Every structure is written in C-alpha cells, then in structure tokens.
Amino acid sequence: MSLLRKRVEELIPEKQEEVKAVRAEKGDKVLCEVTVDQAYGGMRGVKSLVTETSLLDPHEGIRFRGLSIPECQEQLPKAAGGDEPLPESLFWLLMTGEVPTQAEAESLTEEWNARSEVPEHINKIIDSFPKTLHPMSQLVAAIGVLQEGSLFAKAYADGVHKSKYWETTYEDSMNLIAKLPNISSRIYRNTYHNGDVIASPGEDWGANIAAQLGYDSHEVKELMRLYMFLHSDHEGGNASAHATHLVGSTLSDPYLSFTAGVTALAGPLHGLANQEVLRWLNVVIDEVGGLPVSDEKLTEYIWDTLNSGRVVPGYGHAVLRTDDPRYTCQQQFALKHMPEDPKFKLVKQLHELVPPILTSIPKIKSGAANVDAHSGVLLTHYGLTEDNYYTVLFATSRALGVLASLTWDRALGLPLERPKSYTTEWIKNNM
Ligand code: NMX
Ligand code: MLT
C-alpha cells in the first residue's frame, strides 16, 4: 500500500470520531440565518458546507490546512534546486493535514508517474477531437471517457460496503491526477502543435506538465509547480469545488464528479476569467496601438468596458475583500523572473487603476485583483500565448483540491446534498 494511502487510512477513524463528537456537541448551533435576498443572490455568505482541505478568509486569503501561501512556500518540500513547493507535497498536505517529508512527497512523484499511462484507445479518442473544440470541452470529454476505468463505479456495482467507498475514491483520484499531465498536454499539443505529443520525462508532476507542453527550462518548471500549487483549492463554496462535491454526493464516481468541477471552471466568472484577462489585455494593446499606454487611455478603456455592460476580468471576488494572495505570489514570481516584461508592466498598471474605479461603483463589493488577473502574463512571457488553453491548467491544478475533498467526503460518509428551494409565489405568500 502506498505511503499516502496508509497515512489516510490511519487518520480516518480519528477524524470520524472528531466529527461525531463535534456534531454531538455543536450539532444544534446556528451557523447563519438565510435571507430571501441571499436565496436570490447566489447564496453569497450562506455558511452551509464543511470542507476540510482549506479555508478562505476575506481579508487574508486562502490557507491550505491552516498554512498560508508563504508558509507553504517555506515549509513544503521542493524539487531539487527549486524554490516552489512540489504540487505533490501540497496534495499530501491537503489529504492529511500534515507537511510531508521530502521522501513522502517524492513517493507521490513516483506513484503518479507509475499511474500516469493513458490507455491507447482513449488517446485515440482525444486525438480525434476537432482542433476547433474548446480545450475545456476536450478536457471534460477526455475525463468522461477515462471514467470507464473507474474503480469506484466498479466496486459500487459489485456491492461494496459504504464504509469502504473512500478506498476506491482515493484510488480513482490518484489515477486521475496521475493521468492529467498526459491528458492536458495531449490536448495542448493536438490543438496547437499538430499532434506532436511529447512523452512524459518522468520527473515531478509540475515539471512533467511543463515538459509535455514543450518547455524544458528550469524556470518554466518552477512556474508550473507554483501555478499548480496556487490554483489547487479555495475552500468548498467556489463553483468548481462545490460542483464536484454536489455531484460526488450522489455517489457519482470521481471522474464524473470532477467533470462537473471542470465545467463549472469553464465559466468566465470563474476559471475562464484567466483566458478573458489575456484577451482583454490584448484588445487594449491593439486598440491603443501598443505599449506603454498612458493611465488616461487605460482608465478610459476600463470605463468603456464597464459602460458596455461587461465585467473587468481578473477583478472582484465573491468572498475576498483584499488583493488575492495568489495574485501577490504570482507578482513576486514575475518580479523575480521577468520584471521588464511589458505585459507584466501593464498588469501592474491595471492593478493601480482598476480597484479605485471598481470601488467607486457602489454595487461592487470588491475591486481587488484576483488570481486570474496575473496568471496569463506569466504563461505568455514564456511563449504559451494560446489563451483559450489557460483554464485547462487551472482545472488540472484544481483536481488536487477537489479530489482530496471528495475522498474525505466519502471517508466521513457525507450524505446526498439537497437544499430546499422556494418559488417567488411561495415567498410572496409566506414570508
Ligand atoms: N467588473 C464589473 N462589474 C463587477 C465586477 C468586475 N470585475 N465585479 C463585480 N461586479 C458587479 C457584478 O457583476 C454585480 O453586478 P450586477 O448586480 O449588475 O449583477 C455587482 O458588481 C455585485 O457583484 P459583487 O457582489 O461585488 O460580486 P459577486 O460575488 O456577485 O461576483 C465575481 C464575484 C468574481 C463573479 C465578480 O467580481 C466578477 O464578475 N469579476 C470578474 C470576473 C472574474 O475575474 N472572475 C474570476 C474570479 C476568480 N476565479 O478564478 O474564479
Ligand atoms: C477560486 O479559486 O475558486 C476562485 O477564486 C473563486 C472562488 O473562490 O469563489
């Protein structure tokens, strides 16, 4: 049995007891009341989920199992010669709540490499997707096909006892995560490089993704490790985590549950915003006739976007009320590796100009930069300019968080999610 599975197996009874005790002691405490406005308003601020892997504070940002982004960067094991956390070490942290040793993190590298092969008939199906199909649709379809290998679906059909659901959920999650670099990079190479697919070099997960996209440098491998670490998890209420959890609560297998998360991420108000940001920057550059651009012209363009009933992508958030620390962390990477990049300078300029404009509009709750305001310029700097591919990278990373959570959902026996809805008629007559 793998080191991680053994550790999870040891932790499950403790956690089950802890949850039982918490529910016995605090089960009737009120987390929040829900107003009619919240029911119409996308349930913003409704506290009604339990997710163990991470917690988001509106002013401080995300903590993965209690650790902030800088703390993770300091404490989590890294690749030899690298400064950024290995995604493997973050996954171990999300699964166990513990910082892994270097050997534990490396055991995951080894295990994911061993599980990474995608069956040839599935590769052929992926190769048959038209290049015009959006990469996110290709990803959803590819994972849907991969589902034929679901061990959870097979175990369920064979009548497995509910106390063992977590075991095949864990195995499916590990297999899916292990295969994602092959799948995501195949989609990229098929769509933009005439199907010239690159075999995995068998390094760590982030380095494999970089190499298979076509980048061999230490710097891009570091960027990919950072990117995969940063986008992995954002507590349970964001649309991709919630969709995975909701579909998973029906006992749909991890492959199908994750496709729900991926389709949620494909929306422009969620993960697709990283594509939208790059497009928006490129349109600005075209329209103003190149860089640098004056603050006045840029301000005019921001207002044009708003006045034409569109959002400024990369800004605002449903929970965060200050700059996203994932933005700040990417900015630090850019300052270290590409301080003179003109598009990075444009991102910095926007970071000065957009927030005061958005906060001058009373209905907007936050004008601060979110994670998507930055990621595209980092990728563009190294030549990955195909913006409609960007959300595939976000989704690849998000698998780490939502599949760790799904494993715990099953270990804790969380039930089918099914909130109550009302009609407007009912509210008019009864409230
Ligand atoms: N540009 C223009 N209008 C905005 C923006 C923005 N960046 N942010 C919020 N608003 C509007 C919003 O559309 C809403 O308008 P209306 O009432 O007419 O529908 C109003 O302000 C109130 O919204 P908030 O309560 O401030 O934000 P909400 O929680 O509803 O939405 C987002 C959060 C993230 C959907 C919103 O800020 C947004 O659309 N931002 C731009 C898209 C984006 O960057 N999304 C990525 C988020 C991070 N991620 O990766 O998922
Ligand atoms: C995320 O990473 O999921 C986004 O920031 C959206 C969210 O948290 O609502």
From TrEMBL:
One of its GO terms (molecular function) is acyltransferase activity, acyl groups converted into alkyl on transfer. SUPFAM superfamilies: Citrate synthase (SSF48256). Keywords: Transferase. GO terms for cellular component: mitochondrial matrix. GO terms for biological process: carbohydrate metabolic process; citrate metabolic process; tricarboxylic acid cycle. Pfam families: Citrate_synt. The active site is at 270, 317, 372. Belongs to the citrate synthase family. NCBIfam families: cit_synth_euk, PRK09569.1. This is Citrate synthase. It comes from Thecamonas trahens ATCC 50062.
